[in-house]
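Feature request, filed as a ticket because there's no other form

It would be nice if the structure record came with a short human-readable summary line next to the tokens. Right now we just get the raw output. Example of a typical job, pasted below so the devs can see what we mean:
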Amino acid sequence: MLQACTIDGVAGVDFFSSDSVHNSVHDSVHEDEAGNVCSTLRVVRLVHVATATAAALVVAGSTVLNSHVVPGDVERELSVAFESRIEVRVDPRFELFSVLERLAGAPEYGVAATPYARAADIWFAPHAADAAVVTMRRLRAENGIGYDAALTLAAQLDEQLRPVRPLSPLPEGVDERWEGVDIAALLDEVRAFATDTRFDEFIVGEAKYTSNVEAAFRSFVAGRPLVSWFDDHLGARDNADYSVVPGLLTGLMSYGIHAGVDEIFAVVALEAPDADGLPALGPLSEEMLVHELAHSYVNPVVHDHLAEFSEPSPVLVEAAPAMAQQHYPTLEIVIGESIVRALTVLYLYDEVDTAAANAVLARQVELGFSWVPALARALDSSRSAHGGTWSDAELIATTAAVLGLDE
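Raw output as currently delivered:
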């Protein structure tokens, strides 16, 4: 989970100097923080058809979430060949669960204040007491279902809101907070909510807006080597599908979601939306995209090697209160976040500029990840020693060493 913050600059402090090698990393700095953002990833096939066709698909009583529709031309190919695997689309499943979270009073989903968010409030307000909303509110109180948890479940569903794979035991990608929840009963309520609220009609009615948001993200993604950077450094994932999903109701939060190993979604918050709700995508959006994509590579590795972090780390023990405050309650999450943040810094250093990398490093220290500068330095040294790549073992060993667990 990544915190989205404003950057005021860090005068006089450089973690990476443009006149030096990558290893020039310092360990302290100050910078203002503002807000939060999270992670998780996954893919949805982009099917764009005319609005009239989509409208014809909205059948009374249907619980089907139609393939996302927009007016105008069919989706065009990404302009940059090396990123042609990334698709951009608003995902109706994620929007449905975001609406439920917003109605249930989840603070992180209540931040969005765009015309789209206001339209959603008006459309769905008469159903604020529906069973699905009541259940989501209870699950937040009893199971901590919030932030990305609902979206990790949404990623496991088809357009009929039915699971694409068995949900017991929880499959790869579903947040562990769903353990013990009667998911089948909840999904019955969610399907009823989608039908009763005419959810598909709402999505069709917002097609012009969602199309414009998608176009902004598509243009932004096309010029950036997001997947290729990770493939070059961590190994290509030929069977993986990648989607960038604008988070229309996620407020300040961005999430990396995956379903299984190869369906990867970067749910990305709208950076500085204007009066029409259109984002001004810039450095923060690129950081969030990289961060969320990194989770799809890093999380499985950390999960498989968690035993190597069984000894207590003095660094992490000291940081535990700050981590808990940011909703990073487990060792696995903190280790994953640490590696992801360090990799994000190195991407920015390689592909953007030194100032961007330094600003993000500064923010990590302010957020309590005081070891990330040292980890970025160590990972940079490791890749230099191994032909510009990291193996799983090298990622884990380098992180353990920085945290004082290599003895």
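Something like this underneath would help us a lot:
Residues 149 and 175 are 6 Å apart (CA to CA).
The chain has two domains: 51-269, 283-402.
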